[in-house]
Amino acid sequence: MARPEARPGDQTRERILDCAEALFAERGLAGTAVRDIARECDLTAASLYNHFEGKQALYEAVLERGVRPLLDLLQTLSAESLDAAADDVIEAVMAHLGRHPRLPRLIQHETLTGGAYLSKLGRSWLRPLIEQGVSAMKVEPRSPWAEDEYPLVISAWLHLIFGHFTMAPVLGVVFDDDPLSAENLDRQTRFLRKLAHVMMKARGAEPDEFDASSPNPAELDVSSLKPEGRS
Amino acid sequence: MARPEARPGDQTRERILDCAEALFAERGLAGTAVRDIARECDLTAASLYNHFEGKQALYEAVLERGVRPLLDLLQTLSAESLDAAADDVIEAVMAHLGRHPRLPRLIQHETLTGGAYLSKLGRSWLRPLIEQGVSAMKVEPRSPWAEDEYPLVISAWLHLIFGHFTMAPVLGVVFDDDPLSAENLDRQTRFLRKLAHVMMKARGAEPDEFDASSPNPAELDVSSLKPEGRS
DNA sequence: CCAAGGTAAACGAACGATCGTTCATCGCGG
DNA sequence: CCGCGATGAACGATCGTTCGTTTACCTTGG
Predict the structure, then answer these.
(1) DSSP string, B25-64
(2) Which long-range contacts (CB under 8 A, 24 or more apart) does B187-191 make?
(3) How far apart are CA B199 and CA B192, in angstroms?
(4) Closest Cβ opposite residue A152 in set B31, B188, B214
(5) How far apart are the first and last CA of chain A?
(6) Which of A101, B191, B204, B226 has a C-alpha 20 to 30 A away from that of A146?
(7) What are the tens digits of pLDDT across the range A61-115?
């Protein structure tokens, strides 16, 4: 049997990654000093260079280690059932992010600062996610959404799920309650499930009142769509 | 005659704020050097200290100048008609942010790094926004949402609108198209208007269909999150 | 009308602190 | 005894900020 934990080096490496992830998620790449990471895991800055080539390499290792499991999770979900119920995806993703609440912040930092890792992030992670979501929507097309709106719907879900984590600090101030507590995460998950039902299963109802079911909404003039004024 | 442009000082000050806003929104506070800001507006770092007390003061001035008009806009909207149609709010906010696309990024940076300005941001800006949204929802209660879900609904709209801007860089990579172009901003605005109709005007319908199929351990104390602090 | 004086703003130079990184050395387990 | 990993010291670069000086313009007294 290969001893699974016989390599203390990797153990140290993992510990460094943990501390770096915490600080990078909180302060971003530029706001985190190598010496701070070292101090956080009872090391010296020089020691980190025995395990990583430099600050940038450490940063990308943190991102890679964080993003990979999420990517795997989504692939697993789509493999099990292509028309995986939105419920299950929401449940699984929220549970995963609840266990790794720093990940959305890491990704949001990288997105905002537009680092070198951003294009890889978009192409190898977000693009398949969106494509997968779009094709899942095509399986069950009875929804108020036109096919060219599917990417917007999936992007909206990205915003809804990630926003709960990236906005958590300021929402915590507003509600005087931590949005990332187990209780509130569960609450948000149930809310998103309900929202999914409202969004997807909504009766076509009277879309005519609002949208003339034009297949090409690009030609509509926004200012002309004033469905109701106060009377 | 008082010459209207007899004060080049304020003009310079405004130019500094412009450059600082651009760099802070792109790289964050820690990632932006005072010398970079100075170079951007053809000045020397030393000159900036004739107009601002320091880097932190400049940063907060940028935030203040950016947030204030948005706050005013929302107050104006709620003043005109308390039950201001969600359509109008979406339209106005998206138009404003489209004209100031750096603002959501500034706020997101501040939220992520949790600077000193965050609590003021939450209390004086986001809190009234959410309270205003919640009370607007109470005016027209025919919607699938329970009253204790109103804060979640408003927060969701925050995520939907801000997300489009903060995620723009990575979404641009995915779709190979700038989400902040006039065309795509218009498209997103129309999408959000439609989503508002789907969310608000949807049949209250059968939540039983949803709750019954839910493997969720019943409804815990959903009323625990405080929609309003006072009691 | 001009000269003297005052003031705000821009600048080059420099400060100490901290940044990421390198390197020679040391300690310790296999 | 060998070798990996932790270390303190030190490097040049860059950070935010300060200082003394210069420049340009406005006011004011004669």
Answers:
(1) HHHTTTT--HHHHHHHTT--HHHHTTT-SSHHHHHHHHHH
(2) B187/A152, B187/A217, B187/A218, B188/A152, B188/B94, B188/B164, B189/A222, B189/B90, B189/B91, B189/B94, B189/B95, B190/A217, B190/A220, B190/A222, B190/A225, B191/A149, B191/A152, B191/A156
(3) 10
(4) B188
(5) 79
(6) B204
(7) 999 999 999 999 988 887 776 666 788 899 999 999 999 999 999 999 999 998 8
Phi, psi dihedral angles at A134 (to 5 degrees): -65, -45
In the 3-class helix/strand/coil scheme, how is chain A assigned residue by residue? CCCCCCCHHHHHHHHHHHHHHHHHHHHCCCCCCHHHHHHHCCCCHHHHCCCCCCHHHHHHHHHHHHHHHHHHHHHHHHHHCCCCCHHHHHHHHHHHHHHCCHHHHHHHHHHHHCCCCHHHHHHHHHHHHHHHHHHHHHHCCCCCCCHHHHHHHHHHHHHHHHHHHHCHHHHHHHHCCCCCCHHHHHHHHHHHHHHHHHHHHCCCCCHHHHCCCCCCHHHCCHHHCCCCCCC
Whether A126 and B198 lie within 8 Å, measured CB to CB: no
What is the Cα–Cα distance from B171 to A159, expressed in whole angstroms?
11
pLDDT tens-digit readout, B157-204: 999 999 999 999 999 999 999 999 999 999 999 999 999 999 987 665
Measured from the Cβ of residue B208, the count of other Cβ atoms closer than 10 Å reads 8
In 3D space, the residue among B116, B154, B120 whose CA is nearest the CA of residue B134 turns out to be B154
Residue B47's CB is within 10 A of a number of other CB atoms, namely 13
Report the distance from CA of residue A179 to the C1' of nucleotide C30 in Å, as an integer: 50
Q: Which of residues 128-167 of A touch B (CB under 8 A)?
A: 130, 144, 149, 151-152, 155-156, 158-160, 162-164, 166-167
- How confident is residue A158, by pLDDT bands cut at 50, 70 and 90? very high
Cβ atoms A177, A187 nearer than 8 A: no
pLDDT band at residue B10 under the 50/70/90 scheme: confident
Distance CA B162, CA A96 (A): 23
In this complex, the nucleotide whose C1' atom is nearest to the CA atom of residue A52 is C21
